[in-house]
Design a protein that fits this description.
This is Transposase InsO family protein. It comes from Xanthobacter agilis. This protein is mainly α. Helices cover 33% and strands 0% of the residues. The protein has one domain. It contains two helices and no strands.
Length: 54
């Protein structure tokens, strides 16, 4: 979700999304758009991982 425009930039639905899957979805999104200045997660430190940081 783009906080400024409130646009849904991508949507991935499944029964479970691994950290690697989230990172892959973000990579696919970045092919279509520029890299964001910031990524905000509401899951706190539980969501921070090497897959996302890489």
């Amino acid at each position: 979700m783009d906080d400024r425009t409130r646009d849904c930039l991508t949507l991935a639905a499944d029964t479970s999304l691994s950290r690697a899957r989230v990172a892959r979805e973000l990579d696919l999104l970045m092919v279509e758009r520029n890299w964001p200045k910031m990524i905000v997660s509401d899951n706190g430190s539980a969501f921070t991982s090497n897959a996302i940081l890489a």
